[in-house]
Design a protein that fits this description.
Order of helices and strands: HHHHHHHHHHHHHHH
Number of strands: 0
Number of domains: 2
Strand content: under 5%
Number of helices: 15
Structural class: mainly alpha
Shape: globular
């Protein structure tokens, strides 16, 4: 890939290249998702037969903790993406090396903290017999998963680097290869009668090896790319961390907002009322996953367009992404709502019933969430991070008491959740977005301060 735009390169050629990379990233993400689903389905019976219910449940518990640990990078990877994309567009290799070195150094520091805390976590888990009294498996699991987590923070940054270079296809193809390698290594470990510790290593090691290989490939492709202590920039690291923490806040608010329904239902009505709602939500989650694969590559493309001053491309792409988000999500979501009774009967029998109000409310919410994702990619790419954080805070602050009211004082409160959330998104997100989207000024502010939070207003 050519780092610096050639002098004769036109806005049209840059536009074509961005769309080509977006299409490649989206298609490779779809392939990666298919491979991941197939591998995960194959892994379940394999691991159950090898580990049994108890040990497999313990492994799943540690996997869940890894999912929570995804927030532990403090948003540094996301904070560095725009800075790398802007520097790439300007051909500034020195700045890319400084951003990458500073980000990896901070992630390595967080890894060290995790390693130091591992013995404490292991002792706490053993003392409380979280493994049902099997102290050796608990201690081994904590040690192995902690080691993986510590290495994953700096090694996993390669995914953000590929995305910043608009080469997410590299990470997606590597992810597919890692999934197949994980299945193979787990099968070998299970066939050879491997212990719980061996199975843990077999399921985690391929990902670390995959990241390491992609790093090696990047260093060979870009001979100028280096991670060196002389490139560490304290002020740049502080700026990246500042933006990263805002990204972290947005992630936490988003996770809380979309997970809040289950928590509220369980708290007010009891856990038994969560299952019927959560199962129906999962049907519509597939639509969101499809939209995410298509929309995510837009983030670094917007950042590249900002750095080049291609404001017309930003306008056109945002319009296309919003129209496309509706065109893709609406038929799928409302089709799922229409077929939901049949889907539920086929999937889990007649134990869970739905209603048109809930089904079509969830379909409307799915479309609104997809439009939100399209807006988020635009705001991420143009460094309007603080704006998203403020909107997220307001959305949670209004949603929480309103849904509590529905559950406590309305007999069909759960059925109204989808439509209620949709109306809140339209009021709190879409209406402000109509007035706050300002392409040229955002682009100018972001171009020279791509790691400095921008309000976007």
């Amino acid at each position: 890939m050519q780092l610096r735009s050639s002098p004769g390169e036109s806005a049209a050629s840059r536009s074509d290249e961005r769309y080509r990379r977006i299409a490649l990233s989206a298609s490779s993400a779809a392939l990666s998702k298919i491979v991941s689903v197939v591998v995960n389905l194959a892994m379940v019976p394999l691991m159950l037969s090898s580990l049994g219910d108890y040990s497999y449940g313990l492994w799943l518990t540690f996997q869940s903790l890894l999912g929570i640990g995804a927030f532990a990078d403090l948003g540094i990877g996301n904070g560095a993406m725009n800075a790398i994309s802007a520097a790439q567009a300007r051909g500034d290799q020195d700045r890319i090396n400084r951003v990458v070195t500073s980000a990896v150094a901070m992630l390595a520091g967080l890894s060290a903290i995790g390693v130091v805390m591992a013995p404490v976590a292991s002792r706490w888990a053993v003392d409380r017999q979280l493994g049902g009294g099997n102290a050796s498996d608990v201690a081994a699991g904590v040690a192995i998963f902690t080691a993986y987590f510590a290495l994953s923070l700096p090694l996993g940054f390669i995914d953000r680097l590929n995305a910043a270079f608009q080469e997410a296809a590299v990470a997606n193809l590597a992810r597919s290869a890692v999934a197949v390698a994980t299945l193979a290594s787990t099968w070998i470990a299970a066939r050879s009668g491997g212990s719980f510790q061996t199975i843990c290593v077999a399921t985690l090691a391929p990902q670390l090896v995959g990241w390491a290989l992609v790093w090696i490939i990047e260093f060979r492709r870009r001979r100028w790319l280096m991670i060196d202590r002389r490139f560490f920039d304290r002020s740049l690291a502080k700026s990246v961390l500042g933006v990263g923490i805002l990204f972290l806040g947005i992630q936490l608010l988003s996770a809380f907002n979309w997970s809040m329904d289950n928590l509220l239902i369980s708290t007010v009505l009891g856990p038994e009322h969560v299952t019927p709602y959560a199962v129906q939500v999962r049907v519509f989650a597939l639509v969101g996953a499809i939209a995410s694969m298509i929309l995510t590559p837009l983030w670094p493309a917007y950042a590249d367009a900002v750095a080049h001053g291609d404001h017309a491309w930003i306008r056109k792409t945002l319009h296309r992404s919003l129209v496309g988000a509706i065109a893709v999500s609406a038929p799928l979501a409302f089709g799922a709502a229409l077929a939901l009774p049949l889907i539920l009967r086929t999937w889990i029998g007649s134990g869970i019933q739905t209603s048109p109000l809930l089904a079509y409310g969830l379909a409307t919410l799915t479309v609104c969430q997809t439009i939100c994702a399209a807006l988020a990619m635009f705001w991420n790419g143009t460094s309007a991070i603080r704006l998203q954080f403020i909107i997220g805070v307001v959305l949670v602050a209004v949603s929480l008491p309103l849904k509590m009211f529905l559950l406590r004082y309305q007999g069909q409160g759960i059925a109204w959740f989808g439509l209620t959330s949709s109306l809140l998104i339209i009021t709190i997100v879409f209406v402000p977005a109509f007035f706050l989207v300002n392409f040229p000024s955002e682009a100018r502010r972001s171009e020279d301060s791509s790691v400095t939070p921008a309000s976007g207003t």
